[in-house]
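re: the backbone from monday

yeah here it is again, tokenized this time
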């Protein structure tokens, strides 16, 4: 029986049948100040970096999956820019063994589009198709039109999706933050928006030619939003993601600190506004953190010298709940679709017996020292947020408990 003082609030996006079972299993362990908890389907992040094999000093599958569970995630998709790159059946098998031995949640690896992610030769897509969630060269854009078209045709034949990091290398010119006001005022080299949206435009033309199923990673510019909007209006099989930081920050938030350096970079205010509009009208399908942990040394060299990438699994939901839902910009039900329903449907990832319980009233200050992730570089350090995960259950088993 459920304790009369404890209520698990059903807000339409809750998992059917979970309320009473959570109460009977855990009872007063999850009493909050107002006696109300919310149960959501397990979150799903289709874009994370767990760094194994090859870079376990940054993150491991064990630490990354624990951080994900703490953030309410029960399924993640790991990018293939590892050592070795996941570009063959044999290389993928190494990661699959690590996942089997160390992951506390469901982890679905990507296979690389090209050998070594060098863009010169197609990977063993056939050999990896059975055990990879999709194909991506994340971290690098495929520069050759012919190579990307060949990849799309091969992926279509295999019934797999191409998931693209879009970046035109010739337009980067050594940049490392957005080519905007902050870069100009502080003497930094900028990355122009065209480096992203020109390759998105190229890929969308190829999607129209090939009929490939296609997904765009971490979009950041207003032009990209409009290109994807138009592609969907044409009926192309296209989806996209953006990250929490792009929705609540822009380059006016930058500081001389590596925790603000990610790729793509924080763009202009108008880009942020276009991304929010894209979330609201359905152009942007899902939230993905691009969780990219590095060592303290790698992130301690300022904007110019630090590695690209920030962590986000443990803060993603509280950031967007606080900044978009509580401010009236986005309905809570829509946010849960972005975190769970939409990515699972697009990538064919079942929800199973997975759910997460949240205290939405609890306020906390972001302190990376408390993270379960080995990576500590967060642009949200010091932010006061609402919403705390108190329980995550994956496959019917608790994998995180506050």
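seq for it, each position gets an aa:
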């Amino acid at each position: 029986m459920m304790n009369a003082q404890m209520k698990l609030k059903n807000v339409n996006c809750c998992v059917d049948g979970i309320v009473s079972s959570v109460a009977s299993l855990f009872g007063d362990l999850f009493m909050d100040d107002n006696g109300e908890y919310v149960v959501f389907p397990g979150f799903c992040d289709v874009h994370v970096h767990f760094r194994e094999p090859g870079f376990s000093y940054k993150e491991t599958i064990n630490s990354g999956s624990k951080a994900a569970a703490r953030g309410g995630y029960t399924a993640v998709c790991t990018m293939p820019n590892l050592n070795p790159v996941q570009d063959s059946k044999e290389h993928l098998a190494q990661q699959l063994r690590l996942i089997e031995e160390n992951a506390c949640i469901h982890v679905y690896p990507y296979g690389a589009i090209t050998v070594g992610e060098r863009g010169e030769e197609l990977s063993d897509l056939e050999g990896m198709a059975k055990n990879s969630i999709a194909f991506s060269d994340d971290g690098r854009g495929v520069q050759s039109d012919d190579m990307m078209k060949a990849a799309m045709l091969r992926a279509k034949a295999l019934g797999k999706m191409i998931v693209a990091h879009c970046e035109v290398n010739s337009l980067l010119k050594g940049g490392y933050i957005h080519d905007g006001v902050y870069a100009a005022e502080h003497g930094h080299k900028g990355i122009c928006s065209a480096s992203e949206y020109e390759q998105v435009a190229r890929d969308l033309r190829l999607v129209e030619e090939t009929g490939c199923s296609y997904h765009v990673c971490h979009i950041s510019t207003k032009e990209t939003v409009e290109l994807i909007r138009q592609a969907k209006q044409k009926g192309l099989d296209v989806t996209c993601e953006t990250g929490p930081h792009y929705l609540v920050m822009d380059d006016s938030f930058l500081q001389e600190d590596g925790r603000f350096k990610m790729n793509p970079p924080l763009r202009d205010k108008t880009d942020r506004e276009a991304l929010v509009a894209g979330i609201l009208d359905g152009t942007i399908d899902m939230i993905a953190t691009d969780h990219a942990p590095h060592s303290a040394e790698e992130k301690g060299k300022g904007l110019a010298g630090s590695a690209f990438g920030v962590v986000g699994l443990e803060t993603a939901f509280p950031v967007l709940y606080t900044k978009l839902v509580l401010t009236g910009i986005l309905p809570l039900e829509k946010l849960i679709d972005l975190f769970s329903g939409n990515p699972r449907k697009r990538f064919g990832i079942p929800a199973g017996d997975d759910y997460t319980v949240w205290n939405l009233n609890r306020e906390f200050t972001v302190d990376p020292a408390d993270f379960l992730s080995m990576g500590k570089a967060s642009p949200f350090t010091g932010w006061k947020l609402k919403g705390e995960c108190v329980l995550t259950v994956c496959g019917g088993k608790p994998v995180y408990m506050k």
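Residues 42-401 form a domain with the TIM Barrel fold (CATH 3.20.20.140). The two ends are 22 Å apart (CA to CA).
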